[in-house]
UniProtKB/TrEMBL annotation:
Swiss-Prot/TrEMBL keywords: Endoplasmic reticulum, Membrane, Transmembrane, Transmembrane helix
Homology family: Belongs to the TMEM97/sigma-2 receptor family.
The keyword Iron is assigned to this record: no
Segments crossing the lipid bilayer: 26-47, 59-78, 98-122
Organism: Vireo altiloquus (Black-whiskered vireo)
Gene name tied to this protein: Tmem97
Key word Transmembrane present: yes
Protein name in UniProt: Sigma intracellular receptor 2
Membrane topology classification: Multi-pass membrane protein
GO cellular component assignments: rough endoplasmic reticulum membrane
Length: 131
């Protein structure tokens, strides 16, 4: 696995995987302790179907992931990697290739957020009191 990680980082010029900045490490911890536990819960809710209670956790999950990905994508686009010890993307093409690897991790949570906010099945239905 170490060789595979090294090959990925070299091929796609992703120094964040080999020497992650402190803020990126914080995102990794959030992923390990917040996002990963959400996966089996969400899988259960979506496979079972009809679980409207998943709406709030899914909104929290998707907004958290989207927020972290905006920071990562901005770092890829605007950071000066010429000062890094490891080879990072230098040209616009290399930055866009690396961006395309991270982009699905933004698009999928945004689709989940859109589904939770717009799908009538997951919208909260108010119960009115009878007189």
């Amino acid at each position: 696995l170490t060789d595979l990680l090294q090959q990925y980082a070299t091929s796609f010029r992703d120094p964040m995987m080999l020497q992650p900045p402190e803020w990126f490490k914080a995102f990794i911890y959030c992923e390990a302790f917040l996002q990963l536990p959400f996966f089996p819960v969400a899988a259960y809710a979506f496979l079972k179907g009809g679980c409207r209670w998943i709406r709030t956790p899914a909104i929290i999950y998707s907004t958290h992931v989207a927020t972290t990905l905006f920071a990562i994508l901005a770092h890829i686009l605007f950071h000066d990697f010429s000062k890094s010890e490891l080879a990072g993307p230098q040209s616009l093409r290399e930055r866009l290739v690396l961006l395309s690897i991270y982009l699905p991790y933004l698009l999928i949570p945004l689709l989940l957020l859109f589904t939770m906010l717009c799908n009538p099945h997951y919208k909260h239905v108010e119960k009115r009191k009878r007189k």
